[in-house]
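Bumping my old thread because nobody answered last time. Still need a sequence for this structure:
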């Protein structure tokens, strides 16, 4: 009886894999960069990478890897995060081309730049 259930589950998983492999090639053809994957690490009082170039409509996620809080504040007031504790993240979607400079509100010497083009 247990074996039959296991077989049914395996069959279901295989058919899901079939569907995914049918859908996936079309998506891979679109070949834009993946906005979800764009990450700036905040580590050792620096933004890494310090300058990041992304296409329009990219969502950038900053993740705090330090054991003290940091914030992400844009120079022109466009975005501002709350204090991020260790491993907390903040995301912002850049819709328009331009250069967006930002800093840490708690340590203003920490600066970074997002270039959207
Ligand atoms: Cu900071």
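Sorry it took so long. Here it is:
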């Amino acid at each position: 009886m247990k074996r039959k259930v296991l077989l049914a589950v395996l069959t279901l998983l295989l058919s899901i894999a079939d569907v995914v492999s049918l859908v996936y090639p079309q998506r891979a053809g679109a070949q834009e960069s993946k906005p979800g994957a764009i990450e700036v690490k905040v580590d050792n009082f620096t933004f890494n990478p310090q300058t990041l170039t992304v296409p329009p409509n990219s969502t950038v996620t900053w993740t705090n890897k330090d054991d003290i809080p940091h914030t992400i504040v844009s120079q022109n007031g466009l975005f501002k995060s709350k204090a991020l504790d260790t491993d907390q993240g903040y995301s912002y979607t850049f819709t328009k081309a331009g250069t967006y400079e930002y800093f840490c509100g708690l340590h203003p010497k920490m600066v970074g730049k997002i270039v959207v083009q």
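Residues 70, 104, 106-107, 110 surround copper (II) ion (CB under 6 Å). Let me know if any region looks off to you.
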